[in-house]
Amino acid sequence: MEGMQGFSLLGMWASMNWVAKGVVVVLALMSIWSLTIAIERLWRFQRAKRESLDAAVRVTPLLKQHKLDDAVSLVSDKKYRHSHLARVLRAGLTEFQYETTQALPEDFDIVASGQRAIERETLMTTAEMKKGLGNLATISTTAPFVGLFGTVAGIIHAFQGMAITGSGGLGAVSAGIAEALVTTAFGLFVAIPAVWLYNYFLNKVDRFQVEMSNSSSQLIDYFIKNEARVRAAAR
Question: Which residue of 8, 70, 144, 177 has the smallest Cβ count within 10 Å?
Fold first, then answer.
């Protein structure tokens, strides 16, 4: 019964030295932090996907009807504040709207200016979407080493105990080694989900970048066609 108790989680925790216990606490905090990031990013990406789909469906007919002011008002609505597409469209349309209402030189390239505004907003939006992913990457790469550090400290503690008691053999240190290996197992337990989550969210960001790139190209095409239409009408 005492041996079983010694190999239980509570028994191992009770017999760990302060270094191993500190490692377990650090790994527990890393696990909680990675889970917090995952929940927040999952909520954020779901909102972005839902709001972007709604914004794209509603803004397309407005652009076809050349209702630029209505389109700008739509993508500027607060209910689309999490939408990556709305942010990109708002940047381009706002720039285009401003330039069409100002007296600019004839050689001023409205399309190029709108494209630069879209690129700036795309970079900022992508950076915001990657928020927290660096922490997941750090946790996934460092957690195994933190656990290994606890294992090394635990094995040293086990051999120190053997030296103090004067007993030898595998049986004298097996319990201590088992307790030490728990920290390595816990480190892998923290790291593996963090790697999965990091890759999952990184793929999501890549998909959002493709969507923003496609929307940007379509908006630039709209600028070019609209500019050609205005010049044809002026003739």
Answer: 8
Residue 108 corresponds to which tokens in the numbers above? 């001023």
Q: What share of the chain is helix, strand, coil (3-state, %, to 5)?
A: 85, 0, 15
Q: At 64, which amino acid appears?
A: K
Rounded distance between C-alpha atoms, residue 12 and residue 139, angstroms:
24
Determine if the pTM surpasses 0.85.
no
pLDDT at 1 over 50: no
Do 17 and 23 form a contact (C-beta atoms < 8 A)? Answer: no
Dig out the tokens for 42 from the structure. 């999952």
Cα–Cα distance measured from residue 150 to residue 169, given in angstroms and rounded to the nearest whole number = 23
Give the mean pLDDT of 188-210.
94
Query: Got the DSSP string for 199-226?
Result: HHHHHHHHHHHHHHHHHHHHHHHHHHHH
Contact 20, 180 (CB under 8 A): yes
Residue 129: pLDDT above 70?
Answer: yes
Chain-wide mean pLDDT for the chain? Answer: 82
Distance (Å, whole) CA 211 – CA 204: 11
Q: Which two tokens stand for residue 110?
A: 């409205």
- pLDDT category at 107 given cuts 50, 70, 90 is low
| Residue 109, phi-psi category: left (phi > 0), alpha (psi -120 to 50), beta (remainder) | beta
The answer, yes or no, to whether residue 190 has pLDDT greater than 90, is yes
CA distance 26 to 22: 6
